[in-house]
Amino acid sequence: MSPLNQEPSTRELIEARRKKKTVGDRVERMIPSILFVITSLSVLTTIGIVITLFSETFEFFKRVPILEFLTTTTLKPLSENPQFGVLPLIAGTFWSSLIAMLVAIPIGLMTAIYLSEYASQRVRKRFKPMLEILAGVPTIVYGFFAFTFVTPLLKQLIPGLESTNILSPGIVMGVMIIPMVASLSEDAMSSVPQAMREGALGLGATKLEVTRKVVIPAALSGIIASFVLGLSRAIGETMIVTIASGSTKNFTFDVTQSMQTMTAYIVEVTGGDAPAGSTVYYSLYAVAMTLFLFTLLMNVFARYVSRKFREVY
Q1: What is the CATH number of the domain that holds 270?
Q2: Which domain holds residue 213?
Q3: Which of 63, 104, 283, 309 has the fewest CB atoms within 10 Å, counting from its CB?
């Protein structure tokens, strides 16, 4: 056979491919750099937020002692003799979040147990999307619902309830968080192998005993993580408490009174009453930093719990 008719070898084809510079090759080489830049945006954004919070909070603590900010129970930012104690805001945030979790945890967990262990596949496919619709309702709608419906309803049961209080928005926040707790807990329980259920049933356990003693302990990490993430969501909620809890900066344990949360205070200060560069203006960054640290700790705790109690099958 003539050398002219010989087919090129594999090595020759590879070399020819390497020498051939196509547009696809250039794009392929650019893809890692493009993805790196896109990934870096979230990290850079977080760094920018932290730097801004720290710098403005530092300016606030130049004017107000940090001990006064963290230990006093009076918050009068716009009075003639302003006082900047954050404890009333922490109390409002604590009570609203506690009430929300007291509503969301039992209802969400029971819903997750039903969907995972008792509901048929047909019911699960129809019920779970309907439940998750609640997560898509704007929070301002929940706020007006709490103010115009839940509060008047509670007034009939609790005569001393104020028109703006922390109980009503706490309950509505709990309703808002139910889909998160239910969905994440149901996903965690559904990931438990069916063989574990069948083994327990084969030993004579009832359906309820299998759920309590096998499924829930096996899915505990995901369930606790859903609780903590729900709590973080409650701590950071804004519009519901802004509309329904009022702006009275009370440091009290009475949930029937008007109280203000940290997020509602930030909304109030950014409404235009505080001129830029004033102590009141910088106080919103101090409160925002406090809120940021609370939510950060909640998320770190959720990751710790998930890793500590995670079961791998």
Answers
A1: 1.10.3720.10
A2: 90-308
A3: 63
